């Protein structure tokens, strides 16, 4: 096991192309399993009717924000740990991991209280309508156990930060497989309805937390030493984590705001049924972008190590290679979405209550297939900024891409140009490409400046 841990460190500090491939493959599997169980939730809930499926769509933005808290803290800890590993400062890497765990506990407690108080007014504000009871039944359970999801995200990020993708993937696999198995049992066999889906999600997540906690504090065989006795409060570490965590979390807020705005446009254009159609089609689209998320997550670690080691060439290679790899994969998956759009649509229309959605879902998938192709250059650029600790840059890219370009063009294409629902889908695609291009140019400029900075440092040392 010790040799395996050393191999992980050698891998993330070596060839960035190899590191991205080695890190991204298990991460893609992890993301696939996560989305698969989210998809399973939607598929089983779809059997309860359009209102229940729409309820998942209304809850999704808030879930994205709150679980994004864990992902944000995890990204901040991942970035900082990777930078310290790159600089061979392992003591600080340990303390950074402990600070990430500390933050996950504090933040989850605070936000659990806030969301449980505010959930009903938020749903009314979003226009949940006939779906509100379904949404409340799901939300009170999932958000009541927010700690499970936040803590799990941070622990998984710690494994990733030291290149241990195997166990990070196993933990996620446990969550996903258990959830997929017990979902229909809780929903239909126990007769709990949409609340059963929520309980299945909480239980499967809790088991994952128990497994990862055993590896860290039971077996104690990480490269990092996360013994709580080694925790030494350091405000600078908190600031470093927050410099990535806050922007990363705000990115999820932006994604959620984007979803709320798109849902509002859909309701205005065609009623709550349009939200159900979009919810179903975006679930399939999320499966298609899983490889991109996996590659992007790997980029955070690779970029952090390269930045910590003051190696601009590895940073440049990692950025360019990840985009090329992501684009090649996205073209293939986008084509599959178009070719099999009708078959995918039937997944969400297998009962008489949801059969009418099939044709509309197929249409949405055909347009949103181009969204997958528009993602890679912007996503990888954002991940580079997160990896080097420039979370605000990543946030700005997301702000322009999702909240400005995508929403503005969705509105223009739907209402101004009169393209209807197809206009909303097309606007999202075009806005994504335009916003991503801004991020790509910015990342290239940053890497160029970083190279010049390092060259000046070398000249100073030589003189």
Largest sheet: none
- What is the N-to-C succession of helices and strands? HHHHHHHHHHHHHHHHH
Number of strands: 0
Distance between the termini: 44 Å
**CA-atom Rg in angstroms:** 22 Å
Uncertain runs: none
**Amount of helix:** over 70%
Strand content: under 5%
Number of helices: 17
Net shape: globular
- The chain-level structural class is mainly alpha
In round numbers, the mean pLDDT is: 87
Brief descriptors of the model:
463 residues, 0% strand, mainly alpha
Protein architecture, described:
The chain is an all-alpha fold and 463 residues long. The chain has 17 helices and no strands. Helix 15 packs across helix 17. The protein is globular.
Please outline the helices and strands.
Blueprint: H1 2-12, H2 16-46, H3 50-86, H4 90-125, H5 132-144, H6 146-161, H7 165-189, H8 194-219, H9 235-270, H10 272-288, H11 290-308, H12 312-339, H13 341-346, H14 358-374, H15 376-387, H16 391-416, H17 421-462
Helix pairs in contact: 2-3, 2-7, 2-10, 2-11, 3-4, 3-5, 3-6, 3-9, 3-10, 3-11, 4-5, 4-6, 5-8, 6-7, 6-8, 7-8, 9-10, 9-16, 10-14, 11-12, 11-15, 12-14, 12-15, 12-17, 14-17, 15-16, 15-17, 16-17
Short description:
By secondary structure, the protein is an all-alpha fold.
């Amino acid at each position: 096991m010790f040799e395996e841990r050393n191999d992980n460190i050698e891998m993330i500090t070596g060839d960035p192309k190899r590191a991205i491939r080695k890190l991204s493959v298990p991460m893609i599997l992890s993301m696939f399993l996560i989305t698969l169980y989210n998809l399973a939730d939607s598929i089983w809930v779809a059997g309860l009717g359009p209102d229940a499926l729409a309820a998942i769509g209304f809850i999704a933005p808030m879930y994205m924000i709150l679980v994004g808290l864990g992902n944000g803290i995890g990204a901040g800890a991942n970035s900082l740990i990777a930078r310290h590993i790159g600089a061979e400062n392992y003591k600080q890497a340990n303390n950074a991991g402990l600070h990430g765990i500390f933050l996950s506990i504090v933040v989850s407690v605070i936000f659990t209280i806030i969301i449980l108080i505010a959930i009903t007014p938020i749903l009314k504000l979003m226009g949940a309508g006939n779906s509100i009871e379904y949404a409340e039944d799901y939300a009170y359970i999932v958000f009541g156990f927010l700690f499970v999801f936040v803590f799990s995200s941070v622990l998984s990020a710690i494994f990733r930060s030291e290149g241990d993708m195997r166990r990070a993937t196993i933990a996620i696999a446990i969550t996903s497989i258990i959830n997929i198995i017990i979902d229909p049992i809780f929903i239909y066999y126990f007769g709990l309805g949409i609340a059963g889906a929520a309980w299945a999600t909480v239980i499967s997540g809790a088991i994952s937390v128990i497994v990862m906690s055993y590896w860290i504090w039971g077996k104690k065989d990480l490269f990092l030493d996360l013994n709580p006795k080694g925790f030494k409060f350091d405000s600078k570490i908190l600031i470093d984590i927050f410099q990535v965590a806050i922007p990363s979390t705000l990115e999820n807020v932006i994604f959620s705001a984007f979803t709320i705005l798109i849902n509002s446009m859909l309701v205005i254009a065609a009623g709550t049924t349009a939200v159900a159609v979009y919810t179903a089609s975006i679930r399939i689209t999320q499966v298609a972008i899983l490889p991109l998320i996996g590659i992007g997550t790997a980029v955070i670690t690779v970029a952090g190590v390269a930045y910590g080691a003051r190696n601009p060439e590895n940073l440049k290679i990692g950025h360019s290679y990840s985009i090329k790899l992501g684009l090649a994969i996205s073209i293939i998956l986008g084509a599959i979405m178009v070719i099999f759009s009708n078959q995918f649509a039937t997944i969400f229309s297998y009962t008489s209550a949801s059969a009418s959605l099939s044709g509309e879902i197929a249409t949405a998938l055909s347009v949103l297939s181009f969204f997958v192709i528009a993602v890679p250059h912007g996503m990888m650029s954002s991940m580079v900024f997160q990896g080097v600790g420039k979370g605000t840059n990543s946030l700005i890219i997301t702000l322009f891409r999702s909240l400005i370009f995508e929403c503005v063009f969705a509105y223009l294409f739907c209402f101004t140009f009169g393209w209807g629902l197809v206009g909303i889908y097309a606007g999202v695609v075009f806005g994504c490409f335009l916003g991503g291009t801004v991020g790509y140019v910015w990342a290239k400029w940053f890497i160029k400046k970083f190279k010049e900075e390092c060259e000046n440092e070398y000249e100073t040392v030589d003189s």
